[in-house]
Amino acid sequence: MRNKLLFFGFFFHLVVGAWAQEPIMRPESFMIQVLEGHPLAKQAKLIPEFAETYVLKARGGFDPKLAYDLSQKYYGDKLYYSLSDAQVKVPTWYGLSVQSGLEQNRGTYLDPQALTPQNGLWYGGLSAQLGNGLLIDERRAELQKAKIYLQSSQLEQRLALNELVFEAGYAYWDWYLQYNSGQVLREALAIAAVRLEAVQQMAELGDRPVIDTVEASIQYQNRAAALADQQARLEAATAFLNRYLWKPDGTPLELDSNTQPISTTALEAQAPKLIYTGTVDSLVNEHPYLGILGYKLDALAIEKRFNQEQLKPQIELKYNLLNEPIQYNPLAQFSINDYKWGVSAQMPLFLRKERAAVQQTKLKIEQTTFERQDQMATLTAKLLAARAAYLNAQKQLVIYTQNAASTQQLLAAELELFSTGESSLFMVNMRETVAFQAALKVFEYQSKCEQLWLKWEFLQASLVR
Fold it and tell me: Any residues with CB less than 8 A from the CB of 248 and at least 6 apart, and which?
């Protein structure tokens, strides 16, 4: 029976070997599944598409326009007038609009200035903004801002995907911790059950005092309670992990009860994750969030230019050549002496609305500049803290791994003394408890190291590029 107790002291290593026979979900395959199927990943992929619609909408401001205007008056069985104007107008980039059309006017009481030849009157020419709208107008401003938003949307998508991968990865390593902790406590409970049975049999034979059965029973009960608590934590971690599991067609998945995380052996065999130890200024300056704020400043600069343009008077010059189309040819018998032109100008006296808009834009630029400075300082502090925490966790993992190996050696020695009658069950239980706690610490810091590395990469937005 004492040999049986000694055998279970090495049960942990047999359990670890058995775990490898179960289906494994590695973190890499899990992340791929998250990016392919999770609704938030699909939502993030729509961000640039949404921005492209803004560009398309802004380009619509430069679309050619067809227009037709017909006005007639009938009274007392007479056609007073019929005014018809068919026109096509093409806006251009530099505040110019090209237009062409055909007027056909007739009637008994037609205004003489509206009179047109029998075949109608063709016109074609330009309209130009010489003041407000010459350098920039609403159409150009909207298109420029839409293009900036399209560039910014790429960074917004990257931030959204990085946040999703970070949260999913955090959930994975919490599941890893809870799963392996459960296996350790399950092993501890199995050993306590065998030991309780052995001590009871030895007490019946008179080889051990009856009080040892109380000690073994207490140990079994404590471990059973700890395993029940751990099982609840595992179920919670599994449920949280399940929210990141989706099929590409949008069907939610649930983790199979037999699925295991990456094994400790496979995790330890991986190449160590290196971390940048130099200054973090370059990492901060390249951060997508600062890039988004930079694009925001670019858009505000365009808005400022547009608002300043509104301080100028509105001056529009129109010039159209005229000709009567012959056999549908508008240029037949064309003469440069036939034309019409006009100029219009207007300007608010106080410009309060326009000046307020300029001042508001300047204030927005200042606010965004201050926000960018604050974010730079915040990101710098977070990156330095995350790096320090990760490096410290790595050191702690090495220490706890060595500590776990030492406690196993002490346990093996204590079991050997117990088998020869030179130790007590109390000492065996104490050594065993310390050994299991050390094993739990190793899993805790393995998980912590992976989570802190995810945080370091997340703060750089480099989990997904």
Answer: 36, 37
Q: Report the percentage of the chain scoring pLDDT > 90.
A: 73
How confident is the model at residue 19, as a pLDDT?
41
Instruction: Give yes or no for a contact between 373 and 356, defined as CB atoms under 8 angstroms apart.
Output: no
| Cβ 79 vs Cβ 108: under 8 Å | yes
Distance CA 103, CA 123 (A): 8
pTM, to two decimals: 0.85
Please give, one letter per residue, the 3-state secondary structure of 372-389. Answer: HHHHHHHHHHHHHHHHHH
Q: What's the domain range around 202?
A: 2-57+140-298+363-459
pLDDT of residue 22: 64
Yes or no: say if 96 and 62 are a contact pair by the CB < 8 Å rule.
Answer: no
Is the residue at 326 inside a domain? no
154 within domain boundaries: yes
First and final C-alpha spacing in the chain: 60
Between CA 163 and CA 461 the distance in angstroms is: 8
Categorize the per-residue pLDDT at 151 as very low, low, confident or very high, splitting at 50, 70 and 90. very high
Q: Is residue 277 part of a domain?
A: yes
Each residue of 53-74: pLDDT tens digit? 999 999 999 999 999 999 999 9
Among candidate residues 454, 320, 452, the one with its CA nearest the CA of residue 395: 452
- The answer as to whether 114 is a domain residue is no
Alpha carbon distance 457, 211 (integer Å): 55
In the predicted model, is pLDDT for residue 370 greater than 60? Answer: yes
Structure tokens at 150: 């399209």
For the chain, the domain total comes to 1
Please say if the pLDDT value at position 236 is more than 90: yes
- 235: domain CATH number is 1.20.1600.10
SS3 103: strand
Only one residue has tokens 């966790």, namely 393
